User: Fold these one by one.
Assistant:
Number 1:
Amino acid sequence: MLSHLLIKNYALIEQLELSPDAHLNIVTGETGAGKSIMLGALGLLLGNRADVKTLYNETEKCIIEGTFAMEGFYVKNIFDEEELDFENPCLIRREIAPSGKSRAFINDTPVTLETLRKITSQLMDIHSQHDSIQLGSNEYQLTIVDTYAQCHDKLVEYQDKYRTYKKLQDAYEQLQAESDQNKKEFDYNSFQLEELVKAKLEANEQELLEQELNILEHAEEVKQRLRTAQAYLNDTEQSVLSILQSTVSNLSPIASYSPEYQQFKDRIQSCLLELKDVSRDIETEEDSIELDSQKIENIQERLDLLYKLQQKHAVKSNGELLEIQAILEEKVSKVLNLSENLAAAKERVDKAFEIATKSAEVLSKARQKVLPEFERRVVGLLVELGMPNATLKISHDTGKLTNDGIDQLNFLFSANKGITPRQLKDVASGGEFSRLMLSIKYVLGDKRSLPTIIFDEIDTGISGEVAIKVGKMMREMAQSLQVIAITHLHQIAGRGTSHFFVYKDNSSSRTVSRMRELKADERIVEIAKMIGGENPSESAIHSAIEILGVSI
C-alpha cells in the first residue's frame, strides 16, 4: 500500500506530502483546488507521459515519490524478473527535468518506463472517468473477466504459445515470399550458376595462370639467361664453382693450424655446396621450359574466360566468383527444395496453431465459467445502489486467435425495466457508469492482490441513500485493501478512516495547492460544510457528528 507520497514542483503544487492510512482515505476540497492534480502526479508513478508544461517552477525539476509497504503482496517475482533488489518499503520516484527529460527510479535504481509500469500497475489502480470509457472496449472487459476468473496463469501460458505460433507463421510467410521471388529469378539464376559451375573455378587459379603465361611468353629469354647463369656457375674453367673449389683446396693444408682457418674453409665449403644445388636447380628449370605456343593460347583462353566472368559479375577475383556461385547454388536449391521446405514450415505452423488453439479453449472455458456468477454479483450490488431494474448481460462469441485469446466479450447493460440491454455507450449515464464501475471494482476487490485503489469522484450522479451505500461499500473494500477516494459527498466522506483536505493558498504572489490531514473536530466542520454550505447550521453540524459517530 501507499504509505507516503511526495509531490514537488508539479502543476499548482509547490510541495505536498501525504501519508494515507491502510484503510479508507477521503480527499475533499473545493473545485479546482488540486484534488485531480494529485491523481496526475500519481499517474506519473504509473508510467504516464511526462510534460514539462506541468512544472510549477520551470527552472526546477519535478519530483514525484511514492513509498509503498509491501507486506502480504506477491510482487517479489516481478522484481526478480526485472533484476531489481526487492526492498520493503519500496521507494518509487519519477523526475522531470526542466529540459523535459524524464527519469524513473525504483529503490534508487534507474529503470525504464516499461519496467516502472510493470511494477506500479501491481501496486496501484486509479479509477477515473477514463475507466468508464475503457469499459466499452473488448480488451478491458476481458481484463475484468480474467481478474475475476483468476486465470492469469492460463493467459500467460496461452500468450506464450500464441507468440510461438505467430513467430512460426511469420517465418512461413517470409519463406513463401522469398520462394515466390526466387521462382521468378530461377531461370536466370540457373543459367548463371551453370555458367560458373561449367567454368570449374579454383580460388588461386588466376594468379597461377598469369604467372605461367608470363614465363611462357618470355620463354626464350628465360632459357637464355638461365643457361648463362648456369655457365657462370659451372661450365667454364673460371666458373664460380671451380674458383670456390680451388679456394677450398688452397685453405685445406692450413686449416689445422687455427680454428679461424678451419672456419674459413668450412664457410666456403658450405657456399660451394649451396651453389652446386642452385646450379642443378637452374639446369632443371631451364630444361623444363618449353617454347609452346599452343599452351600459351590455352592459358590466354582460360584467362579470357575468367576475366569475362569477373567483369560480368562486377568482381576482381575467382574467390569472389566462387562466393557468387555459392549464393546462386543456395537460391536455386531453395527453389528446387521449395515444396519440401514449405510443407515442413506449414506443418510447424499448423502444429503450433493447434497447440495455441487448445490453450485458448482452456482459457475460454475458464472465462465462460465465471460469467453468470459475475453478472449476478454485479447486478446484486447495483440493486443495493438504487438500481433495482438494472441488468448486465455479457455476450460471448469466439473468433480467431489474438494475443488475448479467442473470446469476444460485450458488456450489455440496461438500468431500466423493460429496456433491452445494449452496449454501455448507448444506455449508461454518468451516474450509472459510476455505480457500475464501483460494483465491478468491488467484486474484483477480493480477486486480486492489489494494495491500493484510488477512486476519482466515482460518486458522480448519485446522492442520498445510494451515496450512503457507496460509502459503505468503500469502507468494506478498505478492510482488505487501501482505498483513497476523492469525493464531494458527505455520505462517503464520513466513512473515511482518515480525511485529507485540499485547498488553494493565495497568501503569496502565486496560487499554490496545499493539502492537510484533518483532525477530528476539523472533520466535523468540513463534513458539515459539505452538508450545509460554507456557513453550516447547527443542524448540519449535528448531522456531521452523527455521520462520523457511526463511521468512527
Number 2:
Amino acid sequence: MTTETSPPVAKRVPAERNHHGDAVIDEYAWLATKDDPETIAYLTAENDYTETRTAHLAGLRDQLFEETRRRTQETDLSVPTRKDGYWYYTRTVEGQQYGVQCRRAVRDGETEPPVSADGAPLDGEEVLLDGNQLAEGHDFFALGAFDVSPDGRWLAYSTDFSGDERFTLRVKDLTTGELLPDEVPDTFYGTAWSSDASVLFYVTVDDAWRPYRVWRHTIGTPSAQDVVVHQEDDERFWVGVELTRSEKFIVIDVHSKITSEVLVIPAGNPTGLPAVVAPRRQGVEYTVEHHGHRFLILHNDGAEDFALAYTSADTPGDWVPLIEHSPGTRLEAVDAFENHLVVSLRTNGLTGLRVLPIGGGDAYDIDFPEPIYSVGLDANPEYRTGQIRLRYSSLITPDSVYDYDLVTRQMVLRKQKPVLPGPDGRPYDPEEYEQHRDWALADDGTRVPISLVFRKGTPRDGSAPCEIYGYGSYEASMDPWFSVARLSLLDRGVIFAVAHIRGGGELGRRWYEQGKLLAKKNTFTDFVACARHLVKAGWTANDRLVARGASAGGLLMGAVANIAPDAFSGIVAQVPFVDALTSILDPSLPLTVTEWEEWGNPLDDPEVYAYMKSYTPYENVAALDYPAILAVTSLNDTRVLYHEPAKWIARLRATAPQGDYLLKTEMGAGHGGPSGRYDAWREEAFINAWILDRLGRA
C-alpha cells in the first residue's frame, strides 16, 4: 500500500473516569462532541487519508460495483401480495436509488399474483409512494412506517432524511392522492390502525431515544390533540405497537431483554383502555397472536427454548399448552390463519416452519432440499387463507419467493431473484459453487458450526484466501444468505465463512445464554477457534484470512484483534461497538439502560465492570502487532455512536503506531450506512476491494 501521506493525529486531552475505585484516562473523549467543528474536521481528515491510502483500489472498486450492477436486474418487480381487493408490490427502476410502492386492483377470477415483463409497471397500477421523489434533495432517505388502513383508503407512512431513525409521520388519502394535514414529527417504528381507520396508533421515544410511549391519533385532528395510550417508565423496557392479522386487536408489546408484557385494545373500540394479557414477571418472555376466540402465547415460562400455549381472548387467564417445550428446538414465532397455525422454529442450526391444522390433522414440518439454508414467512396479511408465502435462500440459492398450499402441501416458486450474467457473459450457475458445514472446537470443548461457500475447485491446501464473518449477540442468528456482491469474491477464489458463535441464537436459547453477560468472552474465543480451525483444516492460512463484523459484530472484531492479532491479515469493523464499557456506563446515551440485561450493569456491579473492562476493545488496545484494520461508521448513527470507532482508531495509532488503520465515516447516514441501493453497492465495493487487497487478490 502507498505511504505518501501520514495519518491524522488526534489531539490527546486527558479526561478521567472513575468507577469502583478505578481511574481511567480517556484522552479522546473530546471526539464525542458531534457539533464541535474540530471533531468534524478530524473525521473529514480521516476520510481524506482513507481515500488517499486506498486510491490504488479505485479501479477495482469501480469494477466490483459494475459487477454487482451487471448481475442485478435493476428494473424489477416484487411478487405482488394480496390484501382484500388489491395486489401490493414494490418496483425498482434502472438508475433509481429507491423502490416505488404500488398496488393494483384484483380482477374478477384472478387468483394468481400478476406478473410483468422485465419488471415493468402492471397495467392499471396505482403508485402509493415513490421513494425517489420523496428523497429528492436529500443525501439519505428511509421509510419507517408503511401501513395501509384496513379499508384501503389511508396510507400512514414516515420518513427519515438523516439516518438517526427519527421519523416524520404523515397520512395520505389514497382515493385522492392528497396528503392530510395530519403530521407527527419525531416518531419511531410501528403503527397500527383501528378497524374503521378513524384512529392511528404510533410510538415516540424519550430523551435517551428509547421507544416508551404509544399514542392515539384521530385522523383529521391536530397532533397536539393526540393522547398517550401507554407510557413505559421502567427504563429497561421499550414498546411497540401493531394490528393483529385478524384486525381484531391493537397489540402493545412491552419488552426488556429478558421480560415481556403485552397489552391489547379491541381494534373496534380504539378509545378503550389497554388490557394486560399477562402481568410481567422477571425473566418471562412471551408474545401474543390472536386466533378466533383465543390468544396464542409463545413463551419461555419453564421452557428455555419456548413453548406454545393459548388463553381466552375475552378473559385472559391460564395458559393451555399447544406445543410442549422440546429442548434443542427453539420456537421463534407463531402466525395465525383462520384454519392453520404456522410456527417458525430452528433446530440443529437450521430454520424451519411447522404447520398445525385447526380442527383435525397432525402437525407437520415443511421440507427443504439443501443441507444449509434459511427459510421464513414473508408478508402474509390475509387471515382467511389456505396459502402462505415464504422466503427461501442459501449461500448458493438466490432469494426465492414461494407460495405454499397448507392443505395440499404443494409449493409453487413465484420468483427467484434474477442473477444476470457477470463480466464474462456467463449466466449464474449454482452448480459452480459449493456450500459446506464445518465445526470448530472451542476452548471449552464446545462444537461451533461454520458455514462456508466457495467456487468448486477451490484448493483445500491452505492457499485459498478467506473472509470470515461473525456477530454473536442478542440471540441474532447469522443464517446463510445469498449475496450478489459476494460472487465477485468467490469468483476471485475467496472462500466465505460464517462463524455461528455463542451469543447468537443458531443453536437455541442456551447458545445465546452462553455468550452474554459474564459469559460474553465465549463469543470472542469461539470466533478465534473458528479462525484457527479454518487454517488447521486447510481451508486457508493466517496471512490469507480477513475477519468482518458489524455493530455488536464490530465489538467482536475489536476483541479478537486484541486477543488473537496473529490470526488475521485484516479486520473490517462496521459501525463497531468498540467502546462498550464507556457507553454502558452512561445511562443518558441512547439504549444504554435497555442493554444492561445483555451486558450487565457496570455502574452497580463491580464484577461486571471488571469483566467488561477486561474485554472491551478500546480499553484493551496494547502495543501489539495488529493486522490491518478498516473501521466504517456513520455520523448520524444512534445505535453505535460514531465516536466509538473514531476513538478506537486514534488510540490504535498512538499505542501501536506501526499498524495500518483506516477510518471511513459516512457524514450523512445512520446505522445501516448509505440508504440508496447504488450508494450501498459502492460502499460494499469499497469494503470488498480493501478485503481483496489484504488477501492479495486485488
